[in-house]
Amino acid sequence: MRKTSLIEKVRLFGRSGIDIVEVLGRSTIFLFHALLGRGGIGGGFGLLVKQLHSVGVMSLVIIVVSGVFIGMVLALQGFNILSSYGSEQAVGQMVALTLLRELGPVVTALLFAGRAGSALTAEIGNMKSTEQLSSLEMIGVDPLKYIVAPRLWAGFISLPLLAMIFSVVGIWGGSWVAVDWLGVYDGSYWANMQNSVTFTGDVLNGVIKSIVFAFVVTWIAVFQGYDCEPTSEGISRATTKTVVYASLAVLGLDFILTALMFGDF
């Protein structure tokens, strides 16, 4: 009995591994065809701009508001910690480095997955459940080219720009708390930041992170929508998977990228 149970567990483990490899393979083929194999973006520049507005501009409010408040919290917490060492004038440096290196790209990607990623999955899944994708194929229109590709490129472009905006408004939010409320000298806040932040070491690495996150989050979102079961329950499960998988992917990749960029190897 125990031997049978062990064999069953091994079988289930192997089945799960095979399923994961199968999904990775299908999603990679899907991405290749959507970006490279079917002749680019259908509908031209106008359709791309429409999707940029949908996933990028419509996400601005949550990005800006979140960035301001996170910058304010960083300044408040940083001031409380640094003041115990007599280094409260370095709060601007701490806020800028934390946002540019870590919180800007990571929090933006998580918010993007929750707002735009889930919307992309639900939209494409709804098109599949109402047989709009099948109808396009019947009239000779490639849904990967006209539906998937514009959304992929819009996500790739939008998220890095949103991450930059997040970091900028976060730094300004930190200055309001540090300078206007806590009494940190204005010149020290900005001068320490200017002296410590480098383009290649901090800004560029943050941009690279946001580009990687944009690629992964958007890929997961559109694939889950395209691959979901064409039912309301299937769309609901796919939307949940998008947020969960994208969030885990962002956090895992953040550790790997941080180790490669800032680790002493």
Keywords:
single chain; 265 residues; mainly alpha; 86% helix; globular
Provide an overview of this structure:
By secondary structure, this protein is mainly alpha-helical. It has one domain (38-262). It contains nine helices and no strands. Helix 1 crosses helix 6, helix 3 packs parallel to helix 6 and helix 4 (91-129) crosses helix 7 (186-196). The chain starts with a helix and ends with a helix. The mean pLDDT is 87.
SSE topology sketch:
Layout: H1 2-37, H2 44-55, H3 60-83, H4 91-129, H5 132-138, H6 143-181, H7 186-196, H8 199-227, H9 232-262
Helix pairs in contact: 1-6, 2-6, 3-4, 3-6, 4-6, 4-7, 4-8, 4-9, 6-8, 8-9
Family: Belongs to the MlaE permease family.
Transmembrane segments: 12-35, 55-76, 152-172, 203-222, 243-262
Protein name: Intermembrane phospholipid transport system permease protein MlaE
